[in-house]
Amino acid sequence: MNADTPESRILPFIRRHTGEVSSIRRTERGFSSDLTALVDCEKGRFFVKAVRNRAGGRRTSLIREQMINDYTSPVSPPLLWEVEDDWLVLGFEAVQARTADFAPGSPDVPKVVDLVRRIGGLPLPPVAEHWTETRWDRFTADPAEASLFRGDSLLHTDINPSNFLIGSTRNWVVDWAWPTRGAGFIDVALLVVQLIAAGHDPGDAERCATRCPAWHQAQPGAVDAFAAAGLRMNRAYAERNPEAEWVKAMVSACQAWTDHRGIVVS
């Protein structure tokens, strides 16, 4: 193992939790951390997320994930241990599961919808009281629209296939890197966009959303305002990252959704 890699650098800090480590295998995704990996070791297997212990976005997101875990246990794997030294490392239970398939006709889709519904049923924990969701505010037409995104629901905000794991007896939502407080319909709306991006007709995607109570609790005009803001946001991302295919896919999905709802977005 190269001495300059995150894998080797975290070893001295995690051994008291792992014992001797036999392998550290990076996962495919993990953009919010310096390292996401499966660790096989003397004490079993753990899913590990690690960042260099420096002030900034990555550390902040991992601290949030650490703080929220006790409250998301009905739908997410438990945090088993943590280390804070030169590195901040979280060790989660490693679950036997695969990433969800959002495609039309997939048997995973009802399971994903159920998980989003269950997220909406989680109480807002005290640690999230001041984590107000504001990321879509600057993409609204006016402050009145932004006010429609306020609420007292705990939000995941990173709804995508990689963050939904399907197991043989249980399913999970992972990567709680940016949980916030806001209107409950937001996670459901994000699911709609992801379903469209996966090939669903916008009407079918919205029919999936109707299985979630939070969808029906949105204030009048809130979903339209959010759909328009999402299109503006992803257009802005696409302008800054013209080579990012996933951003182009999000723009196309958001455009299809606003067209379906009869919204003209400038």
TrEMBL record:
This is Protein kinase.
